[in-house]
Amino acid sequence: MIRLCAALTLCLALLAAPLAAGPIRIKDLVEFDGVRGNDLVGYGLVVGLNGTGDGIRNAPFTEEIMSNILERLGVNITGEQFRPKNVAAVFATAELPPFSRAGSQIDVTVSAIGDASSLLGGTLIMTPLNAADGQIYAVAQGTIIAGGAAAEGEAAQVVQGVPTAGVIPAGARVEREVDFELSALSSLRLALREPDFTTAARIETAINSAFGTGAARMLDSGTVRLDILATGLPSPAHALGQVENILVEPERKARVVVDQRSGTIVMGDDVRISRVAVSQGNLTLRIEEDPVVVQPNPFAEGETVVVPRTNADIIEEPGIGLAEIDEGTSLSEVVAGLNALGVAPRDMIDILKSIKAAGALHAEFIVR
């Protein structure tokens, strides 16, 4: 086991403190079957842009939708050609929350699909939002709040953020409700976000302790079935209102996640390492070009030439010597020890990979 005599430095590695997870509400561990949102999408037109809209020749679909809207409004545009720069074709997306009722409002995200340079100050014209079944569930309209800025001059331009996308808070009104009757259910499935047999068994035990034996049954590592009638409550809504607040201590897999781009290491306190020896060092190959110019003697015939000369050298940088890790040492202690020895995050990730390849790291190893 690596013993530390100096203060620990985190450098670019993030060490997870060995703290107990503690009891967590069931509502934070599971998804209730049928209680879900639905994605909506629509194709519309944004107007009122300050010369930052689509170029009609580069985006002919903008001209088509604009013509259709004007014709529906009774404007005859047959044979006319439009070349405005204050309109842009966009996709409007939204999520229909569960149990949304007709007349309620939801947020809308608007994104340009043509060559518009900015949607700042634009207004989305009435746009139907369809679900996967092709039915219209909401209609969006309103002023866009874009999260960026753009400015340009004759020879340069600057862009901050993404001005070609924005949101309309409460910009869509629900026109159709999803046909789902929660009150008609006699049983309901609880789907675990992180499937685990131990966690599912603890959820079953906690629910049965609250409502009596038979109220819940574990079907597999990711599903627990809730018997609404066995709870003795008048409706599924009452049952879910009490079940979701029951506390359960979840069980987690031993897992190590490393990000090679930032050198970040995240791990759980239950990660363990078997007895293993580690030795690490770095080799640096240095190549320097030092050409020499050779000139002929005075009054002699000849040409000036450049003679190439290359200096190549291999330098072995100091690394860590042979370090022995005892049985049962936690990975957080190992990483803390490597940090104290001045091991760079990139080298630390390579060491962890090698320990995993040697079969001494008992955890799921994820590299991003």
From TrEMBL:
UniProt entry keywords in alphabetical sequence: Bacterial flagellum, Cell projection, Cilium, Flagellum, Periplasm, Signal
GO molecular function: structural molecule activity
Pfam families associated with the record: FlgI
GO process annotations (BP): bacterial-type flagellum-dependent cell motility
Intracellular or extracellular location(s): Bacterial flagellum basal body
Keyword Transferase assigned: no
The keyword Signal is annotated on this UniProt entry: yes
GO CC terms in record: bacterial-type flagellum basal body, distal rod, P ring; outer membrane-bounded periplasmic space
InterPro entries membership: Flag_FlgI (IPR001782)
Endpoints of the signal sequence: 1-21
Family from the record: Belongs to the FlgI family.
Quaternary structure and interacting proteins, as annotated: The basal body constitutes a major portion of the flagellar organelle and consists of four rings (L,P,S, and M) mounted on a central rod.
Function: Assembles around the rod to form the L-ring and probably protects the motor/basal body from shearing forces during rotation.
The protein's name in its UniProt record: Flagellar P-ring protein
Species assigned in the record: Pseudooceanicola marinus
Gene name linked to the record: flgI
